[in-house]
C-alpha cells in the first residue's frame, strides 16, 4: 500500500515496477494519492477542509503537494506497464 507517496517519487515508473516485483502472483497494490486532474471545486473544498482542521505544518504545504499529484488518467497505463 502506498499512501500519499507517489507524487513525491522522482521516478514513478520505478516505484510501480518495484511494487509489481514484490507482489505475489495475483497480489494487489493499493495506491492512495491526490489526483492531479481533480475538478477545481473538489480541490478547493479539500484545501478549505485542511485549512480549518489540520495542524499548522500540514496546512503550510498541503496545496502545493496536492497540485503535484499524478493525473489519475495516466495511472492505469503506468501500472500495467510495470506489471
Could you characterize the architecture of this molecule?
It is a single chain. By secondary structure, the chain is mainly alpha-helical. The chain has helices at 12-22, 40-53, 56-67, 75-82, and strands at residues 2-3, 31-32. It has a two-stranded parallel sheet with strand order 1-2. The longest helix is centred in the middle third of the chain and has 14 residues, at 40-53. It is elongated and about 45 Å long. The mean pLDDT is 80.
Would you spell out the secondary-structure blueprint of this structure?
Layout: E1 2-3, H1 12-22, E2 31-32, H2 40-53, H3 56-67, H4 75-82
Parallel strand pairs: 1-2
Strand residue percentage: under 5%
Q: What gyration radius follows from the Cα positions, in whole Å?
A: 15 Å
Helix content: 40-55%
Q: Output the strand order for the largest sheet.
A: 1-2
Estimated structural class: mainly alpha
Quickly count the helices. 4
Q: Which regions have little confidence, pLDDT < 50, spanning 5+ residues?
A: none
Oligomer: single chain
Order of helices and strands: EHEHHH
Main sheet, how many strands, which sense, barrel?
A: 2 strands, parallel
Rough outline: elongated
Amino acid at each position: 500500500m502506498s499512501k500519499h507517496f507517489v507524487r513525491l517519487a522522482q521516478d514513478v515508473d520505478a516505484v510501480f515496477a518495484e511494487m509489481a516485483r514484490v507482489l505475489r502472483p495475483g497480489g494487489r497494490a493499493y495506491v492512495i494519492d491526490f489526483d492531479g486532474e481533480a475538478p477545481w471545486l473538489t480541490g478547493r473544498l479539500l484545501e478549505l477542509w485542511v485549512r480549518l482542521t489540520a495542524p499548522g505544518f500540514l496546512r503550510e504545504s498541503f496545496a502545493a503537494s496536492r497540485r503535484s499529484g499524478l493525473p489519475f488518467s495516466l495511472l492505469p497505463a503506468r501500472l500495467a506497464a510495470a506489471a
